[in-house]
Specification:
47% of the residues lie in helices and 4% in strands. The chain contains 5 helices and 2 strands; from the N terminus they run αβααβαα. The protein has a single domain (15-109), classed as Arc Repressor Mutant, subunit A, CATH 1.10.10. The protein starts with 14 loop residues before the first helix and ends with a helix. The protein has 112 residues and is mainly α. Helix 2 (36-42) crosses helix 3. Strands 1-2 form a two-stranded parallel ribbon. The radius of gyration is 14 Å and the shape is globular.
């Protein structure tokens, strides 16, 4: 099996990528937190975590962007206060964001 490409798809040229990523993010429920990499993987574009971030930064205003974090739980640089406010409003405890990400992975995969 070939190694996945870690280059993001050409912006604007790959509307399928945007559609796939948007579909995953639109399905997130309030209080769910996932990583950029998980979104990419679930959308069928493993290795495109940075491209997910780019998509959200460029055209994600109509998506629940605050439900997506880095693998370390880092919030969007320059938007930390708003990101934190939106997550807290959905019941996410920010002191344990990585724990919430791990819990979500189990929940999305099915009951433990």
């Amino acid at each position: 099996m070939p190694e996945p490409s870690h280059r993001p798809p050409a912006y604007g040229a790959d509307r399928r990528f945007a559609r796939d990523v948007r579909g995953v993010i639109e399905e997130l429920r309030p209080g769910e937190v996932v990583t950029y990499g998980e979104v990419a993987r679930e959308a069928g574009h493993d290795g495109a975590a940075r491209a997910v971030g780019t998509l959200l930064a460029r055209e994600g205003d109509d998506l629940p962007w605050w439900r997506v974090v880095t693998t370390t739980g880092r919030l969007v640089p320059g938007q930390e206060a708003e990101h934190a406010r939106r997550l807290r409003a959905e019941g996410v405890e920010l002191t344990g964001v990585p724990a919430h990400v791990r819990r979500l992975r189990r929940r999305r995969a099915g009951p433990p």
